[in-house]
Amino acid sequence: MQLGLVPTSAQPTPPLHLAPFGLSLAEVKRIAFERNWDLLAANSGVSAAEAQRLIAKEFPNPTFSLATSKIGSHDSGTALGNGLWSRSYDTIFAVNQLIEIGGKRHDRNLSADAGVAGARARFIDARRLLEQGVTKAYIAALLAGENARILNESSRMLRHEREIAQVRLQAGDISDSDEKQIENNADVFELQATSAEAIAAQSRIALEILLGVEKPGGNWTPTDSLAQMSFSAPPIIEAKTNSMRADVLAAEADLKQSKSDLQLQQAMRIPDPTFSILAEHNPPGGGPPEDTVGVGISFPLPLWNWNRGEIKSARAAVEKSSLALAKVRAQWAADIANAQSEFHEANGRLARYQNQILPKSQQVRESVAFAYEKGGASLVDLLQAERADNDARLATAQALADAASAAADFKAATDQASINN
Q1: Which of 328, 323, 339 is nearest to 246 (CA)?
Q2: How many Cα atoms are found within 13 Å in the side-chain-facing hemisphere of 14?
Q3: In the list 126, 199, 326, 390, which could disulfide-bond 154, CB 3.0-4.6 Å?
Q4: What's domain 21-60+100-269+306-419's architecture?
Q5: Tens of pLDDT along 328-362?
Q6: Rounded to the nearest 5°, which phi and psi values hold at 57?
Q7: Alpha helices in 58-175 (DSSP H)
């Protein structure tokens, strides 16, 4: 991922209200990248940093001063007359310009450039984390919907077994309590399905917050399925000089900025001169006017204040930024290691559920259901087989969601960016 200029918009983002329709994961990401409030705030941070860079590159404005003395005498007129310009007032015009020396402008510009780079890196990192959060929220909504589907399907299977039980009850093969146990178990599955549907709606509402929806309602439906989610891990790319994860780049930019600020504070010990150009108009009491032009220079004397406090504070900021960078780099390595472990465990568990556990549980349920219809299995056997198969299908759905979530975590952990100023 390349980190360059960040687009800004002068117009506020219009409100978004999702109608009852389906959204794919790609569409959800697109909306989030355009409308997420945190991402928009990070984008504003880039604009603020660029404004600070403009300020750092500007020269201080010159100052103009005008001073008139010898005002108020009874005989202010001269041989030139008694007009305002001809009176015996001593008038001085001056233009003063501050010139920064000691590399202050260079250090200030370096600090501003690092501030822009850090703001851009934080924007890209916010986008990385947003993509991860949106993906996992979408997966959570898919999982809740899949759980509701599985539980409703289990309830329908038991309703079918209840119809068979009613026939056997009329034939006197089973007792009335057996038939009611089947009905009770079907009701339990229905209640669990209703709860799962509520959780799915809550998951969709939580995702709408990430999309910048002002009035979330959870009325949309995800069009992707857990089986369609990507379970492949992106390759790990060895970090290069200017290609790292965005949070590491942001920490490096902060360290560079703090070092530039330290150099700036050290340079502040050198006093900056102010050059002046003066013009004096002083009509004499007699004779020709005495207009003069002069130049001057002034600068503060560094006798009492050597900027020691600001330098000490800047050194502490450098040390703090260095520790923060070390911590972020360690966190980057830890995130990759954790993501690898999570990814391999989730995919191994998914493969076992799909290839071993789920086919066996379905086979057992079908065999016991067939035997129960023929009177060769007890009600206890039937209910146990139904519960085991229901649990296996729910666990498989959970494994699918965990594998997809692990892939999203792996992508977020290994994502890299580069800075272009």
Answers
A1: 328
A2: 2
A3: 390
A4: Up-down Bundle (1.20)
A5: 999 999 999 999 999 999 999 999 999 999 999 99
A6: -85, -10
A7: 104-170
